[in-house]
Design goal:
heterodimer; A: about 110 residues; seven-stranded mixed beta sheet; four-stranded antiparallel beta sheet; about 0% helix; about 50% strand; B: about 110 residues; mainly beta; six-stranded mixed beta sheet
């Protein structure tokens, strides 16, 4: 199956700053997604990254807080803006080709201090 | 909305013990069901899946049967090994192509020699 490279793998950031996470897939995929896993909780879908257009956000997530780009079929970025300690989570990129199961990157462990 | 309830961990077993991790779900329609595994330091990997009632997914000695009547998809393995130590996530998808996932909270499994 395809491989996702996610960068950075971890970071410690000051509150009020922003962090951009990159996701690179080694083959063309149809769908790309961003999930968040808060401490002790399940993975929650943030948004679907759409190539060349605005991402589709799930309830409770907004573009101003989590801007997402997807300039081509294999690359996407998620920015966590104006961070607070509540944003400390693992952020995971996921991708899938048409009618196949999703596969995941290793995640980015973010700590906001 | 859709939800997955998963056996809370952590779970610690001796090598060669029998493993069961419970998973039940609530969903509209007829979901596909998945178990994902996250080994230490690695990304989420699909372990097995079942797409309709009474299907049994199996991989690496693990099995899970899609039980519509009890809305369950319990993960089992007859004899666990130290290398099975990981976090296990039950998940479902109700959308076409099975790309977007709703996850359980994850169960951390530790196998001791």
């Amino acid at each position: 199956s395809a491989v996702i490279s996610q960068k950075p793998s971890r970071d410690i950031c000051q509150r009020g700053t922003s962090l951009t996470i990159q996701c690179q897939v080694d083959s063309q995929v149809t769908m790309m997604f961003w999930y968040r896993q808060q401490p002790g909780q399940s993975l929650t879908l943030i948004a679907t990254a759409n190539q060349g257009s605005e991402a589709t956000y799930e309830s409770g997530f907004v573009i101003d807080k989590f801007p997402i780009s997807r300039p081509n079929l294999t690359f996407s970025t998620l920015t966590v803006s104006n961070m607070s300690p509540e944003d400390s989570s693992i952020y995971l990129c996921s991708a899938a080709a048409t009618n196949t199961e999703a596969f995941f990157g290793q995640g980015t462990r973010l700590t906001v201090v | 909305g859709d939800s997955v309830t998963q056996m809370e961990g952590p779970v610690t077993l001796s090598e060669e013990a029998f493993l069961t991790i419970n998973c039940t779900y609530t969903a509209t329609g007829y979901p596909s069901l998945f178990w994902y595994v996250q080994y230490p330091g690695e990304g989420l990997q699909l372990l097995l899946k079942a797409t309709k009632a009474d299907d049994k997914g199996s991989n690496k000695g693990f099995e899970a049967t899609y039980r519509k009547e009890t809305t369950s998809f319990h993960l089992e393995k007859g004899s666990v090994q130290v290398s099975d130590s990981a976090v296990y996530f039950c998940a479902l998808s109700t959308n076409f192509g099975n790309e977007k996932l709703t996850f359980g909270t994850g169960t951390r499994l530790t196998i001791i020699p």
